[in-house]
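Apologies for my clumsy wording, but could you write out the amino acids of a protein and the tokens describing how it folds?
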Amino acid sequence: MILVFGGTTEGRKAVKELEEAGNAFYYSTKTGEQDITLHHGIRLDGAMDRTAMLAFCHEKGIRLLIDAAHPFATVLHQTVADVATQLDIPAIRFERIYPPRDEDIIWCDDYQQIPTDYPVLLATTGVQTISKLKPLEQKGIKLYYRILPRESSIALAHKQGAMDEQLCFYQDGEDEKSILQDLKPDAVLLKESGLSGGFLEKVTAARELGIHLIAIKRPLTPTIFLQVNGEHGLRRMVEKLLPEFYPLHSGLTTGTCATAAAVAAAKKLFEHETPSSVPVRLPNGETIMVGDVEYLDTPANTCSIRKDSGDDPDVTRGIEIRVTLTPSDHFEVRGGEGIGTITQQGFDYPPGSPAINKAPREMLWDNLKRNVIVTISVPEGEAIARRTFNPRLGIVGGISIIGVSGIIKPFSEEGFIGSIRKCMEVAKASGTDRVVINSGAKSEQFVKAHYPELPAACFVEYGNFIGETIKIAAELAIPNVTLGIMLGKAVKLAEGNLDTHSHKVVMNKTFIKQMLGEAGCEQAVIDRVDGMTLARELWNIIPPSFLPSFCQVVISHCRKHCAPLLPKGKLSILLIDEQGDIH
């Protein structure tokens, strides 16, 4: 069981990530005022002191603590650290992402260090800091306090001696500059609250108006905490500390592995260090540690990573990804052995370019920020590529280096749909006015025979994601879409199931009987459905004279659910039998 302390943006992210496990956990906030939806999580409201936290952890069998509270909640941080120490259980600090400290800002260790040479000061440090700022008023400084427009916040402000005319409020969607223009303070007092706390927005607004900035430094985190600063790092840390919480574990994309190898090579080349684990900044800005780095002597400045796919059934699981760095007067990413070459339009880069997607290239630059030539190679890449989408996409000679988020979610619907989108984009770039979507190799063989004039790029596998594939076609303004479907998926789609995966929906015999009745079949035929195991048995159950009408009923139901997803295009549906005949 996991106990999370939140009430923040990081708390929301923690909830979203933990909910994916499908297991129960506790989510605690001090005030209970955060609007958040929990499906598996159990909400707790009210502050816990050390005694209450210890008792709760004992009673509920808590095995992991996650502190996702505000960075300035120092009492809570220390309480969590003390409880984790006493109970000998791990504690994770879900920290914010902080920009580098700007030298033009006046940085203070505490409220006693705030300079007193600014006549009008706007404090954005929160309602609970008003009492700490009251001494400034006694020195003649006019103070305004920006707080949340909650009754509880206003009451607390009054309790600390703030007058109504000193209070101003955060409003959703409000421009940061508007309140500064109204109050015209000489300086703004901030907390080092990180990116999610709106720190940069406040700094930018004050600077545009020529207003001075004072910031209270964030407090140090107790050393017992294992620190992460994003949802992906949180999940991977939970998977490590409490392996059974997630039924399936996450992995790393080829782009993240290549970046880790590049970071390691840079450390060896420029810093003469060879750490076994290196930090990698993901596209969302968070940093994770990637381990098991190998340093190779040939060629020079080469590092290697074995791809960790987690529990995702990825054909690239365990492959070796190598990166060689060469000092240069510019930054460049090259493909070496086992990296595919793009041969068609529709990608981020033109034909002839190495199949290294935009996101991994940006990750490499973001993590290196040096003028180097990065050469990525995958010794097993050419052989493995035959088992990927690459041949269909017109990528030859090897695999692609991919990954938008940098993390692989096991059996990721998002990843599969991303592959579908890329295939559709390639099809559109080929200039075709028709895309034929199908469930897999068997049905594709049959629909290709039906459209012999169409190039291979026009045929796109949807797997089970029929609805998502048609939506992508609509987004790309593809005028004609043909849906090739076999009976097993067709009877599910006809009922309105746009995702036909067997883990989500099974054949509904009652609905099949209804469709047989609509087709005019006799009751004796309809009754035989009860003895069916697979939908394809219908081809033998239905008398040949009734097959055409039954097929039209199935197609009509499928069209009813699918056609609205392609409002500006024309949808054709081909029902395919086991011999490949089209109905």
